[in-house]
Amino acid sequence: MPARGTNVSVGMAARIWRRDKGMCAYCGGAGGEVDHVVPRKYGGPTTPANLVISCRSCNHKKKGRLDMDWTTRGISALIAAGEDTSWMDDFHPRPYA
């Protein structure tokens, strides 16, 4: 079971863990954490369509950035898992200071 952040319920973390088969969405290695593809600080929701399993290394490299390379890898994993990512079509990140 992945370590969970204070904003991800145990049930949600377990659902994401099962969906992603415990594998990191970014590198394909063994995962251990739940990560927001679009970070919360930019308005990313805590929903299955924005959460992936991440290994500690990738999660710490990505941090809270809205970086195209990391985001593209996360979105690709969500689509492969069958999640509806259409909410991202009109998503405009809120400014972060």
Summarize this structure as a short list of keywords or feature phrases.
single chain; 97 residues; alpha+beta; 8% strand
Helices, by number, come to 3
How do the strands of the widest beta sheet line up side by side? Answer: 1-2
Looking at how many chains there are and whether they match, the oligomeric state comes to: single chain
Helix-strand string: HEEHH
Described by strand count, sense and barrel closure, the largest sheet is: 2 strands, antiparallel
Task: State the end-to-end CA separation.
Answer: 33 Å
Low-confidence stretches: none
The gross shape turns out to be: globular
Using only C-alpha atoms, the radius of gyration works out to 12 Å
Mean pLDDT: 86
Beta content comes to: 5-15%
Which structural category do the helix and sheet elements fall into? alpha+beta
Report on the structure:
It contains 3 helices and 2 strands. It is of the alpha+beta class and 97 residues long. Strands 1-2 form a two-stranded antiparallel ribbon. It is globular and about 30 Å long. 31% of the residues are buried.
Summarize the structure.
The protein has helices at 10-19, 56-62, 68-80, and strands at residues 33-36, 51-54.
Helices and strands in order, then pairings?
Elements: H1 10-19, E1 33-36, E2 51-54, H2 56-62, H3 68-80
Antiparallel strand pairs: 1-2
